[in-house]
Specification:
mainly alpha; 0% strand
Length: 133
């Protein structure tokens, strides 16, 4: 039998509120990043914050709320978290690859042949300085 939300213990209400605020805050940061970043390739990273860590906070809040209010462990929200965690990176990777393929096929100048790396990164990767012989 489920209790009402008003009968929830204070510790559980604080935990639920904390995880809801953290999850929704991370989702908001992801949405703001999605709006503010200028190019598609930069925008592709922002929503992952909201969908992975943001859904984690909301999922934990839901698990705590329904576990306390029903008096039995509730874990079916973990399935939602697993599906979102698995499908989000795959979806974004496929979107990025499709955009990269389209930009290369069109000869768009926004796609660099080699990634911009610092000299230290080139040294670590063994690329060295191709200019000096």
């Amino acid at each position: 039998m489920m209790q009402s939300a008003a009968d929830m213990p204070v510790w559980a209400a604080i935990a639920v509120a904390f995880f809801l605020l953290v999850g929704s805050g991370l989702a908001l940061i992801g949405a703001i990043g999605f709006l503010r970043l200028p190019t598609f390739y930069e925008r592709i990273h922002a929503p992952t914050l909201g969908t992975s860590w943001g859904i984690g906070g909301v999922m934990l809040a839901s698990m705590i709320f329904f576990t306390v209010s029903s008096g039995r462990p509730v874990f079916h929200e973990i399935l939602i978290g697993i599906f979102v965690t698995v499908t989000t990176p795959i979806t974004f990777m496929l979107l990025a690859r499709a955009a990269l393929h389209r930009d290369r096929a069109e000869g768009n100048g926004n796609v660099p042949d080699k990634p911009n790396r610092s000299q230290a990164a080139r040294d670590v990767l063994g690329e060295g300085d191709t200019q000096s012989g």
